[in-house]
Amino acid sequence: MATLGVNIDHIANVRQARKTVEPDPVQFAFLAELGGADSITVHLREDRRHIQDRDVFLLKKTIKTKLNLEMAATEEMLEIAKEILPDYVTLVPEKREEVTTEGGLDLKSNVQFLKKAVRNLKDSNIEVSAFIDPFGEQINYSKEIGFDFIELHTGKYAELSGSEQFIELQRIIESTHLANDLGLVVNAGHGLNYNNVKKIASINNMNELNIGHSIVARALAIGLEKSVREMKSLITSNKISK
Ligand code: PXP
């Protein structure tokens, strides 16, 4: 049975919209764990658009499950990871102008550089995962570079429908089997939601699904009515608090 990693970047997005202190992703990590999250994922981006360094340091100290730090393989991020010591790091490609991580890592063009980065993290006892598109070549390179895990990019699967989605699902299933045969642990994520998650969750040997946007969107849908009710009650109540 696959476990659930909850990505809380979008909580930080709301906070950074006002550059204030709420909502605090550290507090929401606690709530995600209460709901059954098996790990907490945050992406510390070079431009710090959502998650801040302070969040990652505090999460490492406070969460009870596992911390998955998503990051680009830059010198700056490698130093931060070695200081924080998350349970594992997921290396992702990063472009400043993108809205979210657009595609998997290009392993082929960066074998030597990534080998060094992975060794560097593993020397600090951090397990390392590669966020890759579901293609055999990428899986073979993941093995060669020395990754412990891969995270298969499900973004394309999530965007497609009907027979096209079925073909993409088969690609993800075959990639999972190939990676397992090579001894890699397989995670998956991106674009998974309440409608499309089941087929990915039921893939044999799928280790963990990393999901963010749809869970935060659902939290707003479930929680907004109650939060409006509380505000309305404060405004309309005759009692003045001292
Ligand atoms: N996995 C990776 C590597 C990601 O970059 C993201 C998005 O931050 C996710 C999973 C979660 O994607 P979503 O927010 O669409 O669930």
Please provide a brief summary of the model.
The chain has 242 residues and is α/β, with parallel strands linked by helices. The protein has helices spanning 9-18, 25-35, 53-62, 75-84, 111-122, 136-145, 155-159, 162-181, 197-201, 213-236, and strands at 3-7, 39-43, 67-71, 88-91, 127-132, 149-153, 185-189, 206-211.
Describe the structure in your own words.
- This protein has 242 residues and is an alpha/beta fold.
- It has 10 helices and 8 strands.
- The chain has a single domain, classed as TIM Barrel (Alpha-Beta Barrel).
- It has an 8-stranded parallel beta barrel, surrounded by 6 helices.
- The N and C termini lie far apart (52 Å).
- The model has no long low-confidence stretch (mean pLDDT 96).
- The chain binds pyridoxine-5'-phosphate.
- The site of pyridoxine-5'-phosphate (PXP) has 19 residues, from strand 8 and helix 10.
What's the CATH C level? Alpha Beta
Number of beta-strand segments: 8
Largest sheet: number of strands, sense, barrel closure:
8 strands, parallel, barrel
Helix percent band:
40-55%
User: What ions, cofactors and ligands are bound?
Assistant: pyridoxine-5'-phosphate
CATH architect. name:
Alpha-Beta Barrel
Number of domains: 1
Uncertain regions: pLDDT < 50 for 5+ in a row?
none
